[in-house]
Design a protein that fits this description.
By secondary structure, the chain is of the alpha/beta class. It has a domain at 55-154: Undecaprenyl pyrophosphate synthetase. Helices cover 42% and strands 15% of the residues. It has nine helices and six strands; from the N terminus they run αβααβαβαβααββαα. β3, α5 and β4 form a beta-alpha-beta unit. The longest helix has 24 residues, at 88-111. The two termini are 30 Å apart. The protein binds farnesyl diphosphate. Residues 34-39, 52, 55-56, 59, 78, 83, 97-98, 101, 150, 192, 217 line the site of farnesyl diphosphate.
Length: 248
């Protein structure tokens, strides 16, 4: 692997991990379910919101490390449509955090060639969040190193239903994929120890490699992302065909 520009391996173990990665077989589209913020905070006697704040830092680290690992698109689950059911104070804190993140990270994203966009419903978001989203999307639209997609008020079932409705009875696999607007997911990571998809990118992840890690999202480091990419390498992707060895 080439020497990372932003993420410097912290120790020999990380350097060896990077060396092992095959630059020809890197996942292009990585999706992350950033789970475990609440538990991380509770374990430290902190309010859950402190876990989300630390989670925003973990996201910044992942965004910095992703291009060096050959990742071209990173889609992260920031707020599911079911998350509206959380206590009002937590929802409002999360919305404030998105607002702050979008405003604070905008310049850094422009500098690092990160194009930011939001997937999900926009019509239910608080009025203060929308302009911050639009400003971040506009300011970063020329970024080519990494496409960062934040899933906010997102439900994959709802997105699939909306795409099918738009196709008005003419849905095919390809048309539905196109209507959903994003490429297939190569690698899907879920932190926090749970092993489920929680209505995230259900169509796009049809052939994704799934990696579940017990690491709580606020503790997630660049090295954890590299380890997930290494795990992706170790899997043989067959897309429903027979293993290569069986054809030999
Ligand atoms: C799941 O952990 C996490 C969320 C519902 C929010 C994700 C938000 C962030 C990582 C904040 C940063 C994001 C942006 C875009 C600034 P949980 O609260 O369900 O954790 P638990 O399972 O331990 O309770």
């Amino acid at each position: 692997m080439k020497t990372p520009e932003l993420w410097k391996p912290a120790n020999r173990q990380e350097t060896e991990l990077l060396d092992k990665l095959d630059s020809k077989r890197l996942p292009h589209h990585v999706a992350i379910i950033m789970d475990g913020n609440g538990r991380w905070a509770t374990a430290r006697g902190l309010p859950r919101v402190a876990g989300h704040t630390a989670g925003a830092e973990a996201l910044r680290r992942a965004v910095e490390a992703a291009p060096d690992l050959g990742i071209g698109m990173l889609t992260v689950y920031a707020f599911s449509s079911d998350n509206w059911q959380r206590p009002r104070t937590e929802v409002s804190a999360l919305m404030k955090l998105f607002h702050m993140y979008l405003r604070r990270e905008r310049a850094r994203c422009v500098e690092n060639g990160v194009r930011v966009s939001i997937i999900g419903r926009r019509d239910r978001l608080p009025a203060m969040v929308l302009p911050a989203i639009e400003a971040a999307e506009e300011a970063t639209r020329k970024g080519t190193r990494l496409a960062l997609r934040l899933a906010v008020d997102y439900s994959s079932r709802e997105a699939i239903a909306a795409a099918a409705k738009k196709l008005n009875g003419h849905a095919t696999r390809d048309r539905l994929s196109a209507a959903l607007g994003g490429p297939d997911v190569d690698l899907l990571i879920r932190t926090g120890g749970e092993q489920r998809l929680s209505d995230f990118l259900l169509w796009e992840a049809a052939y994704a490699e799934l990696v579940f890690t017990p690491v709580m999202w606020p503790d997630f480091q660049a090295a954890d992302l590299a380890a997930a990419v290494a795990e992706f390498h170790s899997r043989e992707r067959r897309f429903g065909a027979v293993p290569k060895i069986a054809l030999a």
